[in-house]
# Entry
Amino acid sequence: MGEQPIFSTRAHVFQIDPNTKKNWVPTSKHAVTVSYFFDSTRNVYRIISLDGSKAIINSTITPNMTFTKTSQKFGQWADSRANTVYGLGFSSESHLAKFADKFAEFKEAARLAKEKSQEKMELTSTPSQGGAVKRNVLSGNKPGKKKESATGDLQSPLTPESINGTDDDRVTPDTPQHTEVRAEPSQNALPFSHSSSSINKHWEAELAALKGNNAKLTAALLESTANVKQWKQQLAAYQEEAERLHKRVTELECVSGQTTVIKSQKTELNQTIEELELALKTKEEELERLKAEVESANEFQSQKDSLAQKLQDTESRNQSLEAQLSDLEQRLESNQLEREAFRKSLRSLLELLDSKIFELTELRDTLAKLLEGS
# Structure
């Protein structure tokens, strides 16, 4: 074939929004291969990138093109023939520098090729046309064509800020964040007291802790169930995508006379399959972890049930103790009443005994006087 790749790299491909001329629109879901091609038959350099079987970049390098670095990892150039602006996002600054150097090199080669072509046209033209052709060559114009601008036919009114887009316009990979809710059962058990008020306070605190743990466990179970369903759906989608890509690779291998572009597509598909298999393995590990969390949540649920049963037994025991306490209070009250009555009877007996003793004393004095008189 006359056209062969001479340099390849991987990058995220963007095109300027044709409506706003400010925001970038991604044309590839992931990083793809971007290659420089040289057509020896036409002496032309081109930039080509394929996303599957679709060509997302097909740009011929001309001397009036300029590749501009708008950030450390992003560059752009305008293609007046395609009437668009291409943007490439690289994984590192060194990849961007290599691509820019190659662009400048091939742009210079295209300029030299253009001059050689014009010289050939000048030699083959008639003497009357030679002077006009020579003047056009010196001024950088082709015969019969209007002078092109130094930055190409497409003059994009873009600034570095508009090229890179705002923070909302930039494409960044989503990082699903999973919030894990773990509930630990309360281990602070207060010693049992015979006082009903302290028992009630303790078990009310235990009941509040159990309610909080129950709410956390319920939220964790719902989240784990939703995550398991989501991962299962994603795993099925990844498996279907992997099978489709395997079939695509098999079909490409069966095609005779494969070109370098098809081989690069095969390599890219194999890399995509490896990435999908790695993602599938990661999702399986995540699924196992979620299953372990569900089992742990079930254990917490069983602990909660046992604590609830203990709480119920303690409440019944507390009720029996309260009944015994009220019975004892009634008996104590009746005993106090009996003791008051006994004290009253003793006081009355003492008063009666004092009166009798006084009477006996008087009787003794009387008898003593009678004895003395006799």
